[in-house]
Write a structure and sequence with these properties.
This protein is of the alpha/beta class. The chain has ten helices and nine strands. Bound molecules: adenosine monophosphate (AMP).
């Protein structure tokens, strides 16, 4: 049986900085790919994107307690560091940073990064505290690793916009790259949480993205946004989803609902199948 090459794993900021500082002193450009682990092709596509424009790629694996609500799945979120490490070595990542919890949230830690406005809407409205948790941990990871480039998926489109905003506002010297959504062959966006879906839920799941396309077609046929959104929500529920948190056309700067097609518009949705909440989005011209 072929043996996978090992990947170096560091668990402290000091070890992370030693490695990254050495790379940069050698003239290498360094890319960072933050994740919560349970890696799939979506994550690996970020590693590929980093390898395409940098010389060294560091992946981080940290299930961030501050971005989970009290009734969310922090305890049960899938974790398998050994499998992730092996897969990352195969995919050509150079370093895996798995911080000990005290490296991120030491005793007496109180600071948080919040991005009012963007982060109050959609995901932020349905998951109070989520974006502050994300913004705080991403800020810390960027400051700890000090990469030249960092890679995030458009799967979490609003999150990507929050991260772009905070790096600009705080003058964090990193280039943020947004990468396209990787999907299953039936169109379902890859997600670590897809593992929670039962067989019948998994069958219904691709209806979310299909409906986003139908919604877009209706907008292009000049059906008003609110009417098209109502049709789309009904379609998602008829396909077997239990709830729709939001589904419409939004301004991708403010995340307020848009009243007509604009180049800055993005179609975003969140809906649940049983206890599994899925998010997805498409651009107007996808
Ligand atoms: P997570 O581990 O869920 O925090 O995701 C880590 C990074 O992978 C985030 O930037 C996500 O947007 C990105 N990601 C997750 N799923 C996908 C996907 N299906 N396609 C592209 N990027 C993804």
């Amino acid at each position: 049986m072929p043996v996978s090459p090992a990947i170096e794993i560091v668990r402290t900021v000091a070890d992370l900085r030693t490695r990254v500082t050495t790379w940069r002193a050698e003239g290498n450009r360094v890319g960072l790919v933050p994740t919560m682990g349970s890696l799939h092709e979506g994550h690996f596509s970020l590693v590929d994107a980093s390898r395409a424009v940098t010389d060294r790629t560091c992946v981080t694996l940290f299930v961030n307690p501050k971005q989970f609500g009290p009734n969310e799945d922090y305890e049960t979120y899938p974790r398998d560091e050994a499998t992730d490490a092996m897969a990352l070595a195969d995919r050509g990542a150079d370093l895996l940073y798995v911080p000990n919890i005290e490296e991120i949230y030491p005793e007496n830690f109180v600071t948080s990064v919040s991005v009012p406005g963007i982060a109050d809407r959609l995901e932020g409205a349905f998951r109070p505290g989520f974006f502050t948790g994300v913004a705080t941990v991403v800020t810390k990871l960027l400051l700890q690793a000090a990469p030249d480039d960092a890679f995030f998926g458009e799967k979490d489109f609003q999150q990507l916009c929050v991260i772009r905003r905070l790096t600009a506002d705080l003058n964090i010297p990193v280039k943020i790259h947004g990468c396209p959504i990787l999907r299953e062959s039936d169109g379902l966006a890859l997600s670590s949480r897809n593992a929670y879906l039962s067989a019948s839920e998994r069958k219904a799941a691709p209806a979310l993205r299909k409906t986003l396309f139908a919604f877009r077609d209706n907008l292009l046929a000049d059906i008003p946004v609110t009417e098209a959104a109502a049709i789309a929500r009904d379609a998602v529920l008829s396909a077997g989803f239990d709830t729709v948190d939001y589904l419409s056309l939004y301004n991708s700067e403010t995340f307020e609902e848009a009243d007509s097609l604009t180049p800055a518009g993005r179609i975003l949705a969140a809906a649940s199948l049983g206890t599994t909440r899925l998010i997805d989005n498409i651009s107007i011209d996808a």
